[in-house]
User: What shape does this take?
Amino acid sequence: MVLTAFVIGLVLGIVGLLVVIVFGIGLWRQGKRTGRLITSELDRFEERAARTEELLTEAEQASRALRDATDRLRVSRARLQVLLASLDTAKRRTRWLRVFLPAR
Assistant: This one.
């Protein structure tokens, strides 16, 4: 009877050990698979972050170019206003000469 109990205990111990080994191998494989998935997602995230950084750099350059163009436009408009004011002044000063010019 003791021998039977010992053999049954030994068989159950071996079966339990085999079950633990099988579950351990399954867990190890699942860990490898999950690691690959996480790594691939991190790589995709890194690529997207790099692309976002490139787009931000391009946006900063475009903003800088727009600011420069706006400054040039402001200067050109100021010059235009000065020239228009000078033209109006010249027209007012020479208005009396129109009397001597033939009509069109």
